[in-house]
Amino acid sequence: MKRKIIMLLIFASFIQAKGMKVMVQEKLDWKVGFHYKSNEKPKEWYNASVPGAVQLDYAKAKGLGDYNYAENWKDYLWMEDVYWTYKTSFKKPQLADGEQFYFVSRGIDYRFEIILNNVKIFAQEGMFKPVQLNLTGKLVTDNVLEVLIYPIPKIPGTPESLYRSNAAQSVKPAVSYGWDWHPRLIPSGIWDETFLEIRNQSHLNDVFVDYALTDDFQIAEIQLKVEGVNLENTQYEWKLTDPSGKTALLKSGELSGLTDEKIELKKPLLWWTHDHGTPNLYTSEFILKRGNKLLDRKVSKVGFRKIQLVMHEGAWNKPDTLPKGRSNPPVTIELNGRKIFGKGSNWVNPEIFPGIITRERYAGLIENAVNANFNIFRVWGGGIVNKESFYELCNEKGILVWTEFPLACNNYEGTPHYLSVLKQESEAIIKRIRKHACHAIWCGGNELFNSWSGMTDQSLAIRLLNSQCFLLDPKTPFLPTSPVMGMAHGNYVFRYFDTGEEVFQKMPRSSATAYTEFGMPGTASVELLKMIIPENELFPPKPGTSWESHHAFNAWQGDTWLMKDLLESYFGKADNLETLVRQSQWLQSEGYKCIFEEARRQKPVCSMALNWCYNEPWITAANNSLINYPNQPKPAFYEVANSCRPFLASARIPKFSWTEGEIFSAKVFILNDLYENIPQSGTVAIKLKAEGKDIPVLRWEFGKAETNKNIEGPVVQTVLPQWNTDQFELILEVDGNEQFSSKYLLQYKKKAGL
User: Fold this and answer.
1) Which entry of 33, 72, 458, 633 is 20 to 30 Å from 691 by CA?
2) Residues 386 and 403 in one domain
3) What's the pLDDT score for residue 319?
4) Residue 93 contacts by C-beta under 8 Å, 6 or more apart in sequence?
């Protein structure tokens, strides 16, 4: 039997239990140090945490300041240009007949060599392909294992303003090289689980439960695809257990006879997103044996579902002429025969250094996504391909995942070397992720078909990724990039620089098959700002201070994320930090509500709304994120959660700021993504509220909504009275169903001179 994983451990002794060996383990001590040439050794060694990053180990050893605070991150920059070596030692274990001793790492970043007892035994470029090295015949009594990490890959001569292009010839996340919301901190080191392991000579590497559902979803035709070492003359036992713990299937026999065998599961319980049903997961247990000897065991979760991208209703009518090949491609998600409106966000790395991302960090963020009524994440191509626990948790919670390969905003030239690494890495990524029920879409990367990238669907890297996905995971949809024709990225501000239009005017005139990026900036909380900005710089915000370092000023184009000038145009100059934060978060909340709800109103032409972005890897002073680092929801998070409820009353409001005596107007809708338990009818009481008093405007009776279709209601109008306040609410109150009601907080101004 495959032995229990030894994460960063040595072998001390072995005991017998139930006829099988069980390891007693002791923790290994890793050291790390830097040097300037590959053939040198570090002059100093520091304690290392694995998984982690070399920068964090050095910073801890030398007492460097927290990179989140002020300008401290700049003290880490030199570390990207040197070599680093990890070192550990262990004794040769006592192996039984047929046992072998392996070094295993699920991720080392980026180019590295592995050295055992001063002999190089392995080299690789690429952080996503796991390493599995049989050390059995190479061991001595006392062993020293080293991992040599090369300097960060760069392209000579790259201008400072184009840092991210340094990633254009490597399969390494471009975001680390610097972005409009991310500092230039480029991780290096052992970033995923790494351990020593005793295996039987005959063992499993992977068991993939591949399947196809019949058109009526009543039968799953299963094919087990087994990869391993020395599998000749072996037998298997396979058990599939349903979500309740009941055995659904039981098979056994010669492994050689399994290659083409189709196994039928009748009436499978389907996996659904949490908003459409239950994310049912079966348990697959595969045992490898030879005669009565147990050799290995693999346990995994399986969710039975069918996912496709289909054309939206009426899409083939536009354009009404040939050729149709360049019409808007399909981007509507169909899950188990049901069209799903994708409500969600763009997921970015939850840590600057991915090595310190834990299952718990993932869990908290994913739980909040469920609370936000999200059903999909787009895992943005500028970051990492997430660790296994991310996908496991999305399986459990019923969140779809759109996974992009690590390509973003660059022209990834199809050189033989780059393509060879990309093929290696993409194969490892696909084989790991394809088994997850949540896995919905493959995508080549972010914004590749743009002037700043310059790629097309004929670029060799895109063609390679398309081919790899087809060969290894043909049933999962593939998009070459986001956006493709028909989709929209942007804008990312409350009021547009070019036209002066607010999002309230812009969105109703927009038409996209999917809004896969759109943003609305808002500051971090006062509490968090005080954690990253020195007291003497806190207020008022100024360029050239830590506000700028943390991307509030000149983050992208002008004063984009803080929008100080915009805030002052609505509210005047803020007297204190608390007021500034309240104003900024107010605009972010109402702006995001407008976009999410308007996107839903445009169904079925539009089928997806994913804001930029969900989370952040460090504390950003001002940003489009809904959740501040590490997992602190902004006020906009709660407003978006309300806007993403499956069924709600909604208002299309023509502007944010209103003046006394104006005729206020809004058009009312029922937004409905439900397929079951749809309300038969209802009444919406529309009213304004200010200074604690309600002003009734209209009552609207709506009939039963059709499955997954909205209801268009009336336009309401009323003259705004005289109030002594700077804000008022529009309230849509559904009689007897408070859970369907909605509120909007708008600005109120008195007439000039009053």
Assistant:
1) 633
2) yes
3) 67
4) 11, 101, 198
Could you please report the per-residue DSSP string of 294-327? EEEEEEEEE-B--EEEEPPTTGGGSSSSS--TTS
Based on the fold, state whether residues 172 and 247 are members of the same structural domain: no
Residue 318 lies in a domain: no
Looking at residue 497, its pLDDT comes to 80
Whether the Cβ atoms of residue 236 and residue 256 lie closer than 8 Å to each other: no
Return the amino acid letter for 598.
Answer: E
Question: Tell me: the pLDDT tens digits for 113-167?
Answer: 999 999 999 999 999 999 999 999 999 999 999 999 999 999 988 877 678 899 9
What whole-number distance in Å separates Cα of residue 465 and Cα of residue 481?
11
Check residue 314 and give its pLDDT: 83
Could you say which of 585, 614, 643 is where a domain stops?
643
Give the sheet arrangement for strand 307-310, strand by strand: 307-310, 332-335, 338-340
d(CA 447, CA 484): 9
Helix H or strand E encompassing 749: strand 742-749
Q: Are 554 and 544 in contact (CB under 8 A)?
A: no
Distance of alpha carbon 446 from alpha carbon 460, whole angstroms: 16
The answer to whether residues 728 and 689 touch, using CB atoms and an 8 Å cutoff, is yes
Domain stops at, among 643, 668, 683 = 643
Task: Give the residue among 313, 231, 238, 243 at the shortest CA–CA distance from 271.
Answer: 243
Q: Which residues of 209-227 are buried (b: 16+ CB within 10 A; e: fewer)?
A: bebebeeeeebbebebebe
- Tens of pLDDT, residues 32-72: 999 999 999 999 999 999 999 999 999 999 999 999 999 99
Per residue in 659-671, pLDDT tens?
Answer: 999 999 999 999 9
Question: What CATH number corresponds to the domain at position 674?
Answer: 2.60.40.1930
554 and 703, same domain (yes or no): no
Do residues 154 and 177 lie in contact, with contact meaning Cβ atoms separated by under 8 Å? no
678 with 568, same domain: the answer is no
Query: How many percent of the chain have pLDDT more than 90?
Result: 88
How far is CA 694 from each of CA 124, 685, 743, rounded to the nearest angstrom? 68, 11, 13
- What letter represents residue 512's amino acid? A
For residue 137, give the 3-state DSSP assignment.
helix
CATH number at residue 136: 2.60.120.260
The pair of structure tokens assigned to 70 is: 């002020």
Give the range of the structural domain holding residue 186, as residue numbers without chain letter. 6-199
pLDDT at 311 (0 to 100): 93
**pTM metric for this prediction:** 0.95
Angle between helices 388-397 and 359-371 (to 10 degrees): 30
Instruction: Looking at the structure, tell me whether residues 622 and 662 fall in a common domain.
Output: no
Q: Is 405 domain-assigned? A: yes
Residue 466: CATH number of its domain: 3.20.20.80
Q: Are residues 501 and 593 in the same domain?
A: yes
Handedness of CA 721, 724, 728, 732 (dihedral sign): negative
Q: Is 150 helix (H, G, I), strand (E, B) or coil?
A: coil
Q: Is the pLDDT of residue 1 over 90?
A: no
- Element containing residue 338 per DSSP (H, E): strand 338-340
Q: Give the 3-state secondary structure of 617-670.
A: CCCCCEECCCEECCCEECHHHHHHHHHCCCEEEEEECCCCEEECCCEEEEEEEE
